[in-house]
Amino acid sequence: MKLSHMVLMTGLIGLAACSGDERDIRLHELRSNSGQPEEFAIVPNKPLEQPPSYNALPTPAPGAANRTDQTPKADAVAVLGGNPARLDETAAPRGDAALINRASRYGRQGDIRGQLASEDLAFRKRKSIFNWKLVPEDEYDKAYRAQWLDAYGVLDAFRRAGVRTPSAPPEGWED
């Protein structure tokens, strides 16, 4: 092996060893790397209003809600004809009680998100043979690729079985 090859290989290994990912403890993050603002994250401010009486305003308190703070759920309830005063952000809707009781009939865990995050991290670490990479890649794609659904295979199976299916773009359209 030539000396230049050994120097190149050592440099690549050293460079790969410097890469680290501080996001390991979080679940998969879906975000755009385009550098543009996320249009769905931008919420316009409520218009300023003059109160009927300045003496009737509540005393300002640090951390307390403001009259111009965004309340998207209450605003949606009001637009749809509901009563935003009856909206309880912490409780499940009354109409979902049967669903919640059925889903939790065998018990439920309060820390399920943390448990799933730690199990997911352990699974990804087991699937990662080498912890170094030259080019950043989505670790979820690599770890969960074997569990992906073959959408066109399932579509073909349904069509062969005579099930009416909606049209689908041709295979490989996103390439």
UniProtKB/TrEMBL annotation:
| InterPro entries reported in the protein's UniProt record | DUF3035
Q: What are the boundaries of the region Disordered?
A: 44-70
Indicate what this protein is called per its UniProt record: Beta-barrel assembly machine subunit BamF
